[in-house]
Structure formats: structure tokens, C-alpha cells
Amino acid sequence: MSYLKHSHFLGMFAIAIVLLSGCQATTGDKATELKKLKDQQSKLEEQIQALEQEVGGTAAATPQPPKETPVEVVELRPVSFSHFLEVQGKVDCNDNIAVSPKQPGIVTQVMVVRGQKVNKGDVLATLDDAVFQQSMQELQTNIGFARTIYEKQKALWDQKIGTEVQFLTAKNNLETLEYKMATLQKQADLYNVRAPISGTVEEVNIKVGEGAMVGSPIPPFRIVNLSNMKVLAELAETYVGKVRVGDDAEVTLPDLGKTFTCKVKTVGNIINNAGRTFQVELKLPTVPDIRTNMIAQVKIKDYATAGAIVVPINTIQNSEEGNYVYTATKSAEGRYMATKQLVALGVASGDVMEIKNGLKSGDMLITTGFQNINAGQYVKF
């Protein structure tokens, strides 16, 4: 049935109802009849609206306001921003000394065991000095004889007997031998292997009867002092000039679950040809249970600014125009719409990015829902 036929039918039906109601109004309850007529009118209007929608209708639809997309925003404010260079290093100590004898010899006694605390100068081991002691004894005998001769010559010279040359020769012989004895007494300590520092004996690699060599690849003893610890890390050549002595740093020892704040103590001046790296050293505080060669996670602050605008990295998008984010801007009518804002990126740190240009304090950055909006679209939050 066409739209015109429907309309004609409904119109005739409405007229008939009106006429019928007019006839009955004189005999029935007018209020009841009025209610019935309104109900019938409402049904007719619904039918007319349904037919209009079915055939396209001619009545203009009531304009609806643009739909608002729900989003989440954050108001941007300047914050302190730092960038950290993260590398892996290892724990070492300044006092990690391989101890060897000052001259070769056969070990006659080992005075310490692994783990023993020692002070600087303590004897760790002794070497066979039998030949040396024999030489000392012979020299002592010669000194005794030379002293006797000197005393006799002196007594004669005091009595003006003999020549001055005889007296001076005897005196010179005695002094020469005594000088040799003083030198040998100093050399006697070469047969003692002494601790060059205070600390803990970490290695004992020698036994009684074995030969100890000067500068052996496997030193007889190793002493460490854990009160003077440091961390060594290798940085890529590209960071030359970005890391300096005194820079703030954080060192984490994963095996101990501890993190320390420290500073860069030294920066190497030599680039390793193999890895194109240079070494930095950071001083550690005294830490219980720390061990050399422990893995250390190092974070060195190489950039900092007091008032930076930063945004979550995931809010930054890219187009042919460049990097951009969406902000919520209030329109003249008081509603918010999405604005595409081109930005100049700075330094990234963790999950945030410094914005050098394009955003300012007070901007409303859209942090959630930005994937589903376009510039100019109305948003709500």
C-alpha cells in the first residue's frame, strides 16, 4: 500500500471517529470519551511516524548534537626530569692485592689460612734462608776479627806506635764489614712474605716445600679489603663527554636486593679498541655480604632539567607531518574537542618523553581513548 493511500485511509478514519464521538458526546461521559480520543490519536501518530520512516518520510528530523567520545585526560605541569644512562657493571675493590715473595725461594712455613684477617706487615710465609744465614755468620766472624785488629791498631796509635795508615786501614776494614752486615740484615726480611695491606686472606696457593716465584701467574696469596669497594662499568664511546666525574648515579646489587646512591669517581681516558668502550668507576659504601665480581646495575644521571613538560610515550603518534599528541581544547560553546598538536621530542626516560616544543603548562593531554578520535571531534571526560 502506498504512502498516499495510507494517509487517505487514516484521515477518513480520524474524521469518522470525530463524528462518532460528536454524536455520543451528548449521551455519554465526555471525560471518558476525551480520553479514548486522545488514545486513538496517539496510536494514529505512531502509525503515521512508522509509515513515514518506511517510505522515507517528508518531515525533517530534529537535529541532534554531535556525539561526544569518552576519554581520559591529564593536565600538564612542569616537572623535574632526569635521564639515566643504564649499563651493567661489576663489583671490585681497590685493595685486591696478589702477594708474591720479593725473591724466589722454598717455602718453609705458611703462617695464615684462607679467610684469616691480617694487618699490614704481618708475615704470611717464610722462605728457606739457610744459605743466607751462613753468609751472615761468616760476615759476623769477619767483623769480629776486623774489630780486634782495629782495637789493637787504635791502642798502638794512641801510644804513637805504628803508622797512621795502619790505623786507618784497620778502621776502614771494620766499617766496611759493618756496612755489609747492615745491608744483609735488611735483605733478611726478603725471606718473609708480608701482607702489603690490612684485609682478609682470600687465596692461599702455596704449601710448605713448594717453590715461590716472584710475579708468578698464580700468586701464593691474595688479600682483599672489603671496606674499599667500587663498581666498574664499560660505557659506549658515544657517551664520551656526557658522563663526568661527580655525576650522580644509582647502583643496584640484584643478588643482595640493595640500591645505593653514589657518584662517578673516575672516567677513563682510553677507548678500548675491541669494544669501543671506556671505563667509569663508582665508589661504593661499606656493604655487608658484598663480594668482588658481583653483578651491578648502574644508572648514571647524564641529563636533568628542573621544569620540563613530559608525556607518556604511548600517547605520542606519528604522521607525515611529524610527531603529535591529542589535547582536549575547550570550544566557544563550552564543550571540549580533540586538537591534534605537533610536538618536538626531547629525551626519553623510562615510559615518559620530554617535550621540547608544542605543549605548555595547563594543556589537557588525552591519555586514554586517543586512538579512536580525530581532530575536531567532541570529547568528554
CATH class of the largest domain: Mainly Beta
Q: What would you call the structural class?
A: alpha+beta
Q: Quickly count the domains.
A: 4
CATH topology-level fold name of the largest domain: OB fold (Dihydrolipoamide Acetyltransferase, E2P)
- Write the element-wise H/E pattern from the N-terminal end onward: HHEEEEEEEHHEEEEEEEEEEEEEEEE
Q: What is the strand content?
A: 35-45%
CATH fourth-tier homologous superfamily of the largest domain: RNA polymerase II/Efflux pump adaptor protein, barrel-sandwich hybrid domain
Radius of gyration: 50 Å
Helix and strand topology:
Blueprint: H1 3-24, H2 30-55, E1 69-70, E2 72-75, E3 79-93, E4 96-99, E5 105-110, E6 117-118, E7 123-127, H3 130-158, H4 164-188, E8 192-194, E9 199-204, E10 211-212, E11 221-224, E12 229-236, E13 248-253, E14 258-267, E15 277-283, E16 295-312, E17 317-319, E18 322-330, E19 336-342, E20 344-349, E21 352-357, E22 364-368, E23 378-380
Parallel strand pairs: 1-23
Antiparallel strand pairs: 2-22, 3-12, 3-16, 4-11, 5-7, 5-10, 6-9, 7-8, 9-11, 12-15, 13-14, 13-16, 14-15, 16-21, 17-18, 18-19, 19-23, 20-21
Helix pairs in contact: 1-2, 3-4
Structure, explained:
The protein is of the alpha+beta class and 381 residues long. It folds into four domains: 3-55; 70-81 and 306-380, conserved putative lor/sdh protein from methanococcus maripaludis s2 fold (Beta Barrel), CATH 2.40.420; 86-95 and 224-304, Beta Barrel (Elongation Factor Tu (Ef-tu), domain 3), CATH 2.40.30.170; 97-221, OB fold (Dihydrolipoamide Acetyltransferase, E2P). It contains four helices and 23 strands. It has helices at residues 3-24, 30-55, 130-158, 164-188, and strands at residues 69-70, 72-75, 79-93, 96-99, 105-110, 117-118, 123-127, 192-194, 199-204, 211-212, 221-224, 229-236, 248-253, 258-267, 277-283, 295-312, 317-319, 322-330, 336-342, 344-349, 352-357, 364-368, 378-380. The chain has a six-stranded antiparallel barrel with strand order 3-12-15-14-13-16. A five-stranded mixed sheet has the order 1-23-19-18-17, with no helix packed on it. A four-stranded antiparallel sheet has the order 4-11-9-6, with no helix packed on it. Helix 1 runs antiparallel to helix 2 (30-55) and helix 3 packs antiparallel against helix 4 (164-188). The longest helix has 29 residues, at 130-158. It is rod-shaped and about 175 Å long. The model is unreliable at 1-21, 23-27 and 57-61 (pLDDT under 50).
